[in-house]
Amino acid sequence: MCLLSPAGALIRNLHRWSATFGITFVMIHAFHAMARRAYRAPRDIIWWSGMVLGTLFLLFLITGVILPWDWRSYMAVIIWSDWVKLIPGLGGYLQGLIFSMFTLGRDYVVHIMLLPAMLFAVLGVHIFVMRRLGLSPGVPKVDEVITLHSGEKPKKAVQWWPHFVIRLAVAFVIVTALMVALALLIQVPYRAPETIPLPDEGENIPGPEWFFLLFWQGFYYLTGSLKKFNFIMPLLAIFLFICMFMLPFLSKLSFDKVPGLKGLIAKTGAMRPGSLKNFMYATPVIVLAAFVFFAIFTGGHKAKTFSCDSCHTGMEHKTFLMSVPPNVDRYYNAPKIGGVDAQGVPILIPKDSYWQLRHLYQPDSFAYGWDPE
User: Fold this and answer.
1) What is the sign of the dihedral through the CA atoms of 114, 120, 121 and 123?
2) Interatomic CA distance for residues 349 and 360, integer angstroms
3) Three-class secondary structure assignment of the chain
């Protein structure tokens, strides 16, 4: 359909690029709120509703990747199902839910009906509370504190209407124009049904899988005798969520009692108001944000540029072209020959998450055989 309709192709490419822009802006917004300490009371409800919005957006990405049901979708289903299986207690149930009930039909309903309804409801609460309490003033400045104590009227904050709405409208127009330009100039390769797209087809075009690889790295590095430690992956994600949820309470703690921080906090507090002081307050969050974006880019870029296209091409190796993904459960449990051992016996490898990640990063490793055990 998209091959016959330029408008359809534009919408499809806009959908892909908007997912990338969306998760990027969600993360930047979260880091910005952390840097400005916008999670402190009485704006803690805004912070918690924002966390729910971020979780919903992540579910949008997961269901959106699965819906096309190409090999990229299959890879995501396999790895996410193995990932949730590692969660203590609920893991087995969640994996069964994905394999037995998370069909394309239900996934479609969740993606276009359930998640949007939840998104608009939580977003309404998020904006309503934010408008009632006003925008976060951020890190308090010395001159503002002196002004308040002197009885003078403080500076008027930026109003939601019309100033902030105008800013948002201008930003929306600029970002939309940029996405349209990218959707027209750098299109996502898609030649189905003649050729089924590969998991990483479209080199250097960012996609949700770049972000997902941040969660999946354990399946690549922790293999063999180290596989028993992979339960740390979901536990780290849960621990990070709990830490972010607890930020409004943690902000009430006195960190100046921590050895080494007391002097630094005192010096920062005594600095003159301005960009440098705000930067000092935001330094820990900036370092965290830089690490996260670096991890996402390095993990995704390597997999996107040195993976499937090295073997599955439409030129020299036509026999390697891929068909529509088969039944998930049947293909997942079927072994794959991964070379031969010293006695010439074929090595059978289950096509689970360990196989998927190894194949994505090192497709040539299966030419010589790779035993995950």
Assistant:
1) positive
2) 15
3) CCCCCHHHHHHHHHHHHHHHHHHHHHHHHHHHHHHCCCCCCCCHHHHHHHHHHHHHHHHHHHHHHHCCCCHHHHHHHHHHHHHHHCCCCCHHHHHHHHHHHCCHHHHHHHHHHHHHHHHHHHHHHHHHHHHHHCCCCCCCCHHHHHHHHCCCCCCCCCCHHHHHHHHHHHHHHHHHHHHHHHHHHCCCCCCCCCCCCCCCCCCCCCCHHHHHHHHHCHHHHCCHHHHHHCCHHHHHHHHHHHHHHCHHHHCCCCHHHCCCHHHHHHHHHHCCCCHHHHHHHHHHHHHHHHHHHHHHHHHHHHHHHCCHHHCCCCCCCHHHCCCCCCCHHHHHHCEEEEEECCCCCEEEEECCHHHHHHHHHCHHHHHCCCCCC
pLDDT along the chain (373 residues), means of 10: 66 88 92 88 92 94 85 84 91 80 79 95 93 71 42 57 87 94 82 61 74 91 90 94 91 69 71 77 88 88 69 51 61 57 59 81 60 48
**CATH superfamily name and code, 6-322:** Cytochrome Bc1 Complex; Chain C (1.20.810.10)
